[in-house]
Amino acid sequence: MNTRTRTIRAVGVTAAAACFAIGMSNGMARAATPTIDMARVLVAAQIEPDCGQTAALSDNASTIPVQQALAAKGIATTADGWYGNGTTSSYAAWQRRLGYSGIDANGLPGLSSLTSLGSGRFTLAHKVNIGSRTDSYGGKRVNTRTRLMLQAADNLLPRWNFSLVQGSYNPGGVGASAGTHDGGGVVDVSVAGLSSTQMWEEVRALRTVGFAAWLRTPAQNFDYHIHAVAIADPDIWQQDGGHVARDQVCSFWRGHNGLAGDGLDNTPSAYRVSFTWWEKYKGI
Could you tell me the pTM of the whole model? Predict the structure, then answer.
């Protein structure tokens, strides 16, 4: 075999190897699983059932793979990026299939059920982990995520300490709460002894770290306190099957007060902040 023949064959082998490598690379790219933003999906799951599909949430790239995975499991779901009541029902069906019930089958993606759903289909970023459900803040029961959020808000106002008049996981505890405290992520903050300015400063601090928070007043038929809902908490739930606390997040998003009449938010503009949630605030 002469040198020219050997050279031609070597070039041919090299080209074939390169084509194979390119083909493998393309195949791997096609097979790559998407990464979804878990926190953003949960935000959509709390806003879109009552507010409708909301493009400003930028959740479609994360919500659609979840919907596609539900459909692939044989659970009828439209993969349109709208985490409305239909997707909520479909996700609750998936949770029940996994053996969950009650608070664990509320249609909001929890870390365990979403990880299971995504196996081989997608991976998770910005994971929402509530930690322990039996944590506490100032002697009131909350989950760990809520405790960390409250502590972060408290740290923004070092001149005094936050205290709670009602924690979470308190089904039927206070009738006026309309079931909002049955699950996790919802607290009532005391404002006893605070000036009007200090009350609003607490509202702003809570909103800064990711709570939907409002000052409740006698004009609304409440004693003064702050009602706060931890946005994107997957444990928001009512034992009667209602969705008052979940839909309060939608009301907050729209600039309303989270009450039955859904009036405008009474918070002065100086104490309002941009909509956010804990994982976004912390960059996790």
Answer: 0.88
